[in-house]
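ENCODED BACKBONE
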Amino acid sequence: MARCPNCGVEVDSADSFCRACGAPLAEAGGPMRSATVEQLIHEYREQIAQHPDDDSARYALGLAYLYHGSLALAREQFEQVIRLAPDFADAYAKLAITCSRLGQVEQAREAVAQAQSIAPANQEYRDIADKLNQLG
């Protein structure tokens, strides 16, 4: 199994983004398919058009939207991922980050609490919850 070049966790070779840190991944040791976030968005939208229930593609699209600053679209994709894969803890965590950036702190807290209930030992989720608690 491959490792994320950013955080070092094991990643599935089919994933385009690391589920732990969100870093873009190269395909099977090769170069990235796209050089820009806009190109990634286009590619993931095409993939989802062909496979609407692909939670990994929706998650990757949500990350691309998040990096692009298209927060409402990112939120929509993370919510779709959660509907398709209710135990996808990272989708809840990224939804929490997205909601926080949208000023929806209570929804962000609910999302990170769900992520923590799925993976209580995950330090990233504790860190997100701590940051949200500092907001008041």
Remarks:
- Residues 59 and 79 are 9 Å apart (CA to CA).
- The beta strands are 2-3, 10-11.
